[in-house]
Specification:
The protein is α+β, with helices and mostly antiparallel strands. It folds into 2 domains: 141 residues, Jelly Rolls, CATH 2.60.120.10; 80 residues, Arc Repressor Mutant, subunit A (Orthogonal Bundle), CATH 1.10.10.10. 37% of the residues lie in helices and 23% in strands. β11 and β12 form a beta hairpin. The C terminus is likely disordered.
Length: 246
C-alpha cells in the first residue's frame, strides 16, 4: 500500500485550487485499490460504482466494438482519472480498465463523490473539464481512424505514448511501459499483421527498435514527421523532453 499524504493528490488536476484542509478531507474519504498486472479494475458493462485516480503503474482503457474487436482508447498514467462517469450517476462503465503493470489507485464511490462535489464546487468544475478533454480525445481518435493512413495512426500512437511514458536511454527514447504489437494494433484500429509489418519496416529504416513488449524510438524527428504527415523533419522535436505528466 502507498502511504497516503496530501502530496499524493495536490497536483492531480481533479483537485486543483483546493487548500490543504480540503485535500486532507478528500484523502480521508479515499480507498486504495492495488491491482496486479493484467487484472481489471472493471469491465465494460459493469455497474459503475467508483471514480479512480491512478497513483502508481499504468492502466489500459479499452472498449469492444459491435463486431467484437477490442480498441484501446488511451493509457492512463499516474495522476490521471478514469471511471469518472460513476460520479455523475452513470449506471454502467462504457469501457474496461486493465492494469498494464502492477498498479495502485485511489477510489471514491459515487455517493462520496457527490458529497465532495457539493462541498467543493471546484472538484465539480475540474471533473467536467476532465470529461470534456476525454470527449475531445475520443473524437480525435475517431477522426484518425476515419481519415488517416494506418502508418500515420501507428506513428501518432507512439508519439502519444512517448509523451506520456517516454524515458531517454542511450539508444533513443524508451516507451517505459510493457507494449506489445497487439496493444498497438488495438490502439490504432488495425491488425497485428499490419502493425508487425510497419514496425519491421521502421526497424530496417532505423526509426525504432522493438523487443518483447518493448519499443525504443531511435529517430524521434522522423517518427514525428510520420505522425503529422509532414514532408520534412520538424525544426523542433516535440519528443525531446518527454514527461509522465504530459
Amino acid at each position: 500500500m502507498t502511504l497516503l499524504s496530501t502530496d499524493l493528490i495536490k497536483d492531480i488536476p481533479l483537485f486543483q485550487e483546493l487548500d490543504t484542509k480540503a485535500l486532507e478531507s478528500i484523502l480521508e474519504n479515499a480507498h486504495q485499490r492495488p491491482v496486479a498486472r493484467h487484472a481489471f479494475y472493471f469491465h465494460e458493462g459493469d455497474i459503475a460504482t467508483s471514480l479512480y485516480v491512478l497513483v502508481q503503474g499504468r492502466v489500459k482503457l479499452m472498449q469492444t466494438t459491435p463486431e467484437g474487436h477490442q480498441v484501446v482508447l488511451r493509457m492512463a498514467v499516474p495522476g490521471k482519472m478514469f471511471g469518472g462517469l460513476a460520479a455523475f450517476g452513470a449506471t454502467a462503465y462504457p469501457i474496461s480498465a486493465q492494469a498494464v503493470t502492477d498498479s495502485n489507485s485511489l477510489s471514491w464511490d459515487g455517493k462520496t463523490m457527490a458529497e465532495l462535489i457539493k462541498r467543493y464546487p471546484s472538484v465539480a468544475l475540474n471533473t467536467l473539464k476532465h470529461m470534456a478533454t476525454q470527449l475531445q480525445e475520443v473524437q480525435d481518435r475517431y477522426r484518425e481512424l476515419v481519415t488517416e493512413r494506418v502508418e500515420q495512426r501507428v506513428a501518432r500512437a507512439l508519439v502519444r505514448l512517448v509523451r506520456q511514458s517516454g524515458r531517454k536511454i542511450k539508444e533513443g527514447i524508451l516507451i517505459d511501459i510493457p507494449l506489445s504489437r497487439q496493444d498497438l494494433a488495438e490502439m490504432t484500429g488495425t491488425t497485428l499483421f499490419t502493425v508487425s509489418r510497419i514496425l519491421s519496416g521502421w526497424e530496417h529504416q532505423n526509426l525504432v527498435e522493438t523487443g518483447r513488449e518493448k519499443v525504443i524510438i531511435t529517430a524521434p524527428h522522423a517518427l514525428t514527421s510520420l505522425a503529422e504527415d509532414l514532408p520534412h523533419m520538424p525544426a523542433e522535436d516535440p519528443l525531446a523532453k518527454p514527461t509522465a505528466k504530459d
